[in-house]
Amino acid sequence: METRDTVSREDPGPLPSQGSGAPARASIDRFEMKPHWAVRTEEEQVEAAAELYERAIQQWIQPPPPEIPDPARFEELEAMSQELKLQQKCQDIAALIMADEQGLMDGADEEG
Predict the structure, then answer these.
(1) Whole-model pTM?
(2) Phi, psi values for residue 2, rounded to 5°
(3) Which CA distances in Å does 61 have to 52, 64, 66?
(4) pLDDT, tens digit, for every residue of 17-66?
(5) In this structure, what DSSP letter does residue 36 have?
(6) What stretches of the chain show up as alpha helix (H) in DSSP?
(7) Phi and psi (nearest 5°) for 25?
(8) Are 28 and 7 a contacting pair, CB within 8 Å?
(9) Looking at the DSSP assignment, which residues form a beta bridge with residue 31?
(10) Average pLDDT of the chain to the nearest whole number
(11) Which of 8, 6, 1 is nearest to 29 (CA)?
């Protein structure tokens, strides 16, 4: 896009303060729109639309193939799961021990 000044910059004319009887003319900018892209031919547009349509149909008709689980990865995840279960059991046991100790300490304080 481009703007063009329609009033010449070389001769601005008399200034309003010089006392001329004619009013000074204001600068007017005109807007001129120029395309900055190449226009596709109708044949190119049809080919592009057909290609997009074909890709959309293929995605809609064929679901993506299911991932085949890797046996090594499955075994690794299973081992991690067992380790986590063991840690949780240890935490439960530690919590019970701490609760029993707290109960014993509270009982000793009441007796003393």
Answers:
(1) 0.34
(2) -145, 145
(3) 14, 10, 15
(4) 555 555 566 677 777 766 655 566 888 888 999 999 999 888 888 777 77
(5) -
(6) 42-61, 71-111
(7) -85, 130
(8) yes
(9) 3
(10) 77
(11) 6
